Amino acid sequence: MLVLGIESSCDETAAAVIEDGNKILSSVISSQIELHKPFGGVVPELAAREHLEKIDPIVDEALQQAQVSLKDIDAIAVTQGPGLIGSLLVGVCYAKALAFGLDIPFVGVNHIEGHIFSVAFENPPIQFPAFALIVSGGHTNLFFVPEAGKYKVISRTRDDAAGEAFDKVAKMLGLEYPGGPIIEKLALEGDASKIKFPIAKISDGRPDFSFSGLKTAVSRYVRDNAIEKVVEDETPSQEIKDIAASFQATVVKSLMKNVEKLAAEFQPKTLIVAGGVACNNALREASESVGKRLNIPVYFPSKHLSTDNAAMIAAAGYFHLQRGEQSDLRMTADVSMRLQNFENEDAQLKSKKVRYRL
Ligand code: KG4
Ligand code: ZN
Fold this sequence. Notes:
The structure is a single chain. The protein has 2 domains: 2-117 and 306-349, ATPase, nucleotide binding domain (Nucleotidyltransferase, domain 5, 2-Layer Sandwich); 128-300, 2-Layer Sandwich (Nucleotidyltransferase, domain 5). It is built from 12 helices and 10 strands. It has helices spanning 33-36, 44-66, 85-102, 111-117, 162-172, 179-187, 212-224, 238-266, 281-294, 303-306, 311-322, 345-351; strands at 2-7, 12-19, 23-31, 75-81, 106-110, 130-135, 140-145, 152-156, 270-274, 298-299. The chain is globular, with a radius of gyration of 20 Å. Bound molecules: 5'-O-[(R)-(carboxyoxy)(hydroxy)phosphoryl]adenosine and zinc ion (ZN). Residues 10, 136-138, 163-164, 166-167, 178-181, 184, 275-277, 279-280, 307-308 line the site of 5'-O-[(R)-(carboxyoxy)(hydroxy)phosphoryl]adenosine. 5'-O-[(R)-(carboxyoxy)(hydroxy)phosphoryl]adenosine is lined by residues 10, 136-138, 163-164, 166-167, 178-181, 184, 275-277, 279-280, 307-308.
């Protein structure tokens, strides 16, 4: 079965053709990084216009690279949300029109569920129950996944997403957008033990994440120590590298702290780490260490599948289509779409109802 995946939730226009849920025939991504760079972040209006220009040629390229034509496609999966409304609408309207024209099924996919399915291509089958830590520019959530397709958020960020914190701290230091890869590179030459940044404690005691206090702590450190921002083409100072390393180490530590704490309670058999920040090697190494301590395997997507792509959307879509779940033409973009359809086992056993928000 061939599924055409379409992703346009933020600043990547992507299309992919996958076969039987786990074989990538093509995965084409058009990044808007250069377009948004001068603004230090994604400008929603520009993003939507760019998606509109790119979506048709990107889908064509995905079909060409897969050496198939539209009539070979069995179904379409498209990101329904969460994301930027203008960006999402481009993909959703395009997918609906295409599916209607071709008279084939289509399904709206939760972008975060897509990130979870990004590990489906290059790893052994997931052992359930699993943990899925999704860390990206827009999201930072730890999901308990008792079985395929069921999700319960057990830890979430109260403010900024981890990737957003990387991007904002980078901006503070005069570094380019997106900040994650640049901070990671500088951190390699920095001393992570140089500065003690705080790990947020949530006042109501819930095991959630928070990165806004860390961002403020970096900003205060920069101000109090009169750290000079990096100027274009100049080599960053050792101080900047130490800040990058110390900041990165604090983010990684705070993510891992909750994973480890909650693992004792939920006893997962696999740890999935995905989303743009999963490109980060410090996070990968720390996750591997946690996996070793818990004696469970850790699955990452390869780096090109960690950031936004359409192959992961097609894989999640395939999963739903196989279960007979598909969307109809009333489906529309959902900017704040949630991924939580499992409250707790007892309640579920009693009601035998699983809510899907697709
Ligand atoms: O998943 P993604 O492509 O888009 C969203 O759904 O948000 O993630 C993009 C985010 C950006 O915030 C970027 O700075 C971060 O992922 N990122 C990284 C690295 N590569 C990308 N963060 C830390 N280290 C990296 N190597
Ligand atoms: Zn994403």
